[in-house]
């Protein structure tokens, strides 16, 4: 489906079969061992990574895909229909806006994201969705500097670093950062109006 719809929906620059399997599917599935809980929201899903492979391999998980671009949301809806996936929905919107909606704020056991923003900015997008006791799971490449840079953001938003799963995936350095939510996120976050990006915590 990714290959079939790529031209129309502009989903990924990776078009070789083997590269798609390695860089999209296997990379996404590396997060499986870190999952805890029943519900997950994926921020900036794009073509559905990491959340679609996670959903396929964890069929009982309730999954929400949040994506800012409507065109990509159309592709995600096609995938869900064609694969007949249940308990999964697509929301077209921006994290910093949806996180203010009380139907979504602190409602998920887990929030995942891959290739959306640097960890300090991303924490402000993602942490508000996670219930106290839940986890923010961030799929990264070279993560050390980002992790250092995000330490204030993580604690201000109610998080604590739980673990880092570092590995090499076909010669690429990867790291999956798991942050536990130990306190509620203060109401003023996310700040909105691009402040998460322009002036990260
Ligand atoms: N997560 C996918 C992956 O790893 O292949 C897509 C990564 S793509 C580089 C980033 C995606 O995040 C884009 O589809 C973009 O529209 C979406 N995005 C960026 N900022 C966002 C935000 N604040 N709220 C929701 N989606 C966002």
What do these coordinates show?
Helix content is about 35%, strand content about 25%. Helix 2 packs across helix 3. By secondary structure, the protein is α/β, with parallel strands linked by helices. It has a 7-stranded mixed beta sheet with strand order 3-2-1-4-5-7-6, with helices on both faces. It is globular, with a radius of gyration of 16 Å. The chain starts with a helix and ends with a helix. The longest helix has 13 residues. A hairpin with a 2-residue loop joins strand 6 and strand 7. Bound molecules: S-adenosylmethionine. The site of S-adenosylmethionine (SAM) has 18 residues, from strand 2 and helix 5.
Report strand %. Answer: 25-35%
Based on secondary structure, the structural category is alpha/beta
Largest sheet: 7 strands, mixed
What do the pLDDT scores average to? 97
How many E-type strands? 7
H/E topology pattern:
HHEHEHEHEHEHHEEH
Cα radius of gyration in angstroms: 16 Å
Side-by-side strand order of the widest sheet: 3-2-1-4-5-7-6
How widely separated are the two ends?
38 Å
- List low-confidence stretches: none
Treating each run of at least 4 consecutive H or I residues as one helix, how many helices?
9
- Residue share in helices? 25-40%
Small-molecule binders here are: S-adenosylmethionine
Shape: globular
SSE arrangement:
Elements: H1 2-9, H2 17-29, E1 39-43, H3 51-57, E2 62-67, H4 70-82, E3 88-92, H5 95-98, E4 108-114, H6 119-126, E5 130-140, H7 144-149, H8 151-156, E6 159-169, E7 172-181, H9 195-198
Helix pairs in contact: 2-3
This protein binds S-adenosylmethionine (SAM).
